[in-house]
Amino acid sequence: MASLNVKAVIVSLLILLVGLGVWEALNQPPAASAEMTEYERLMGGADQEARVPPPSQVLSHAFDELSDPFYDAGPNDKGIGIQLAYSLYRVLTGFIAAALVAIPLGFLIGMSPLMYKALNPFIQVLRPISPLAWMPLALFVIKDSEQSAIFVIFICSIWPMLINTAFGVANVRKDWIRVAQTHELGALKTAFLVILPAAAPTILTGMRISIGIAWLVIVAAEMLVGGTGIGYYVWNEWNNLDLNSVIFSILMIGLIGMLLDLVLGSLAKLVKYEE
Amino acid sequence: MSNRFLSIEGLSKSYPSKSGELVVFEDVNIGIDKGEFVCIIGHSGCGKSTILNVLAGLDTPSSGNVIMDGKEVSGPSLDRGVVFQNYSLLPWLTTLQNVAFGVKARWPKWSKDKVNEHSRRFLEMVGLGHSLQKKPSELSGGMRQRVSIARAFATSPKLLLLDEPFGALDALTRGIIQEELIKIWAETHQTVFMITHDVDEAILLADRILLMTNGPQARVAESVKISIPRPRSRAEIIETPAYYKIRNYLVNFLVARSGNLSGSSGSAASETREVDPTLLSSEADTTTSKEPAPPRPRAVNNY
Q: If I label A90, which of A123, A177, B31, B146 is the partner at 20 to 30 A Cα–Cα?
């Protein structure tokens, strides 16, 4: 198995090198074939075509940004660390609020066939709504762009957690419920000592899906509400035509998204059990 | 009958079906004394699991009632411990935690040390003292069932209900655990009600074996006394002449008479006959196997 891992790392590195190499090669400014005229020199060279910056430029820019991630030079110029922190704060606030609602509600739905049937139509209608469609209504009702962004995260993270919790709770093995019954456990003890640990892996899967969606949505939400955050940063750098920063922030979005998934993945491992 | 430790009186269970009422079993009367080990045998569908679930309080009968220790049984209780066929261990808990789960439920005021000490003692009784920290998924089927048995015995219920506890185990493992069950039963003297499909297992373990006719409309036709002296072991019991006599009698019932007797209701037929096969003459024994009608063994005391 170790040799397979080593091989995989080598192949990954090769793909990375080839990809970066092609990207670098395709995006070189053309060598000036003739002496530039005075006019051409004044206009910034003979290169009339906009070009994606090559990886060498992006990487050196990334190094500059990451060596001072928390600087704050006014509303339009903040370090990448500050922007990511804003986004993470919104995602985590919305996500935790959603978990606090979705998990108890999912428990109720999972334990009561009546509530399942009664609430199912609402869930089915509300779930497919793009979270950004809520934004205007949220802005109107909440009257605060910051909290509206958090609300959008809340509404998009709630569904996978709600559905997975209900499913996990409804499908706890009957045998385990019987164990609780024959040991005279009350409703609350049954919920915490038997149903919760039994459904925990399914609940965690829902939380993992939710945080992934929340991280996707926050970028779009911040592009709309503006001000701060990684989504705003990407759009702002596009307006500044600073493609180095755009590409750099895309990479950072991917990296943080991966880290969030890793954290929930390791939490899921803690509650996992084998039958 | 009412002065016995456990008495099941006029129990029946029926379900509504397309062709009217489907009566699984009816007019089941069973009395069990304190400390008695009773096995119940019958073909699938005769409702023995339902009877056990009613005793456990997990199911309700259509009519009749169950009285244990002077009190009517309604709903599950720690007074009646259950061992299920599929072990029913909580897979996220270790062996020790699974037993402690039961002990904590039984004695909520015990300290953690006392709970663990008590749990450990019962796990050692079933030979699992070395696997306390293992999860059920790391244990074999036989070991899992031992944990389940330890959990049930550790809560010292007044009545222990075993629902085909060894049904899913291979024959060799089953034999070993049967002897462990004998050992732990001898130490604790629990009253046990056990479902089994295995005639040899029933003879080895039971004081009395209840024989059920086939469903629907099943009933407890006979109560067979196992007079083989204790302590019994698998190796010695097969040396006893009584063993084969009992065994033949039981097999004969299951193969031939359980079907013939089924569905025949009426006041006379619904009584449970007490039988001791060792007191039957061999002649009566062989003729009964050919007769389609209910046999008339010599040693019968209807009560």
A: A123
pLDDT-derived band at A31, boundaries 50, 70, 90: low
Is residue B20 in some structural domain? yes
The reported pTM is: 0.84
Q: Which of B76, B91, B137 has the CB atom closest to A182's CB atom?
A: B76
B88/A175 touch (CB, cutoff 8 Å), yes or no:
yes
| Structural domain span for residue A138 | 54-62+78-271
Ranges of beta strands (E only) in B18-78 are 20-32, 37-41, 63-68, 71-72
Residue B18 lies in a domain: yes
CATH number at residue B239: 3.40.50
Question: Alpha helices, DSSP H only, in B11-140?
Answer: 48-56, 95-106, 112-125
What integer is the mean pLDDT of A233-257? Answer: 94
Task: Say which CATH number the domain at A205 has.
Answer: 1.10.3720.10
Give a yes or no: residue B288 inside a domain. Answer: no
The 10s digit of each residue's pLDDT in A250-271 is: 999 999 999 999 999 999 999 9
Could you say which DSSP state residue B240 is in?
Answer: -
Number of domains in chain B: 1
Q: Percent of chain A, pLDDT > 90?
A: 79
| Least Cα separation, residue A274 to chain B (angstroms) | 6
Domain assignment of residue B218, yes or no: yes
> How many domains are there within chain A?
1
Q: Does B282 touch chain A (CB under 8 A)?
A: no
